[in-house]
Amino acid sequence: MARIRPTQVADDGFWDEERPSRGKKAARYAAPVAVAGIAAATIGLVPALASTGDPNLPKISAQELISKMAASDAQQMSGSVKITTDLGIPSLPGGGSIADLGGAQGGDASAAPESKLMELISGSHTLRVATDGPEKQRVSIVENAAEYSMIHNGGEIWAYDSGSNSAFHATAPKDAKAKGDHRREMPKDLRGATPQEMAKTVLSAVDDTTDVTVDGTSRVAGREAYDLLIKPKQNSDSTIGSVRIAVDADNGVPLKFTLSPKSGGKAIIDVGFTKVDFGKPKAGTFDFTPPKGAKVTEEPKAGHKDAPKGFGSKDSKDFKDAQGALSGLKVVGEGWDSVARLDTPGGAAAPTTPGGDSGPGGASGLLGGFGKEVKGKFGSGTVVSTRLVNALVTADGKVFVGAVDKDALIKAANAAK
């Protein structure tokens, strides 16, 4: 396997330059429907395996524990994260799954970050992470025969895939952040693959539809932690049974995030540290030089005719296309039972296969291979189900999606005007 230089990885799973560190200031937290969005988009985030007896810690209330998390000021951290995801994505009649459709569209062999996302949608993955404030982060996905790394160091972003010996490089001017040029930031898709980011998302769900309690203690990655249990109140239509967050008893940093389904069985998403240090990593952790012979793809400089507008830039074509597609988005219901309704432009749903028919009929034909036909006052449509997110696409092109059961989607479609 080609090595990422100049950093070497020690047997304990850390970069050998790393030293104990501190974590990052917790931001304000987002809503239950966002749990479904984060889970489906960034996908990944797992269980920490280190657990040897529950520690005896002083009593703390749920409000005090949430406040402790919000006050956490950990700017530096390094460690290993294990991610396990079991969304229960439906299979195609001829083999493969709905996840393969997303991967097929991006079939280039470059190391650009977006090409790795669909690989995190299922199974178990090991990540090595390091951060030293907002300007320096490193995330590596470690597989059996290869390693994929993203390194953000100031205005430089590198991504390297050792399997194909290919690299992607982007730069941004020093004032890029002030001007809203997101090329200066590491894409959130992979940066968000930590218990902290997942916890921020779900904690915004703490409202009248939510029960929040401190449910004992645990040990994660050798550290003592309080277990915060978050779940919908009774009579909820949500597919989510509970979210459990292990919070470091000393510094308030979330160490483990587990999302379990109401239907029972193993967790849908489990994310946690197996090793963690709250100390400053050496500066060399964030240095990168492409190995000899690596194929390097450079992001065109700003102003070049082929230059993209940056990661998530509001000027990019992808952003404008997505903005147009979501212009009809409405949210019905509240809290855990929220359903997002999208009236696609002209009543047309997503296209089927490349070169195939588009529009409501085409989409229904494609989804028929995954889902089940349903009928109601709204007419007819197809429901595609996973263990977390369910979606109803009606024959006239409306889309209803949420972390709720099938009956809740049909009810929302029947009530739609």
From TrEMBL:
Top-level taxon: Bacteria
Ranges of compositional bias, category Low complexity: 344-355
Region named Disordered: 289-316, 344-366
Biased composition (Gly residues): 356-366
Bias-annotated ranges (Basic and acidic residues): 295-316
Entry keyword annotation includes DNA repair: no
Keyword list, A-Z: Membrane, Transmembrane, Transmembrane helix
Family annotation (Gene3D superfamilies): Lipoprotein localisation LolA/LolB/LppX
Membrane-spanning parts: 29-50
PANTHER family cross-referenced by the UniProt entry: SPORULATION PROTEIN YDCC
Name listed for the protein in its UniProt record: DUF2092 domain-containing protein
The organism of origin for this protein: Streptomyces rugosispiralis
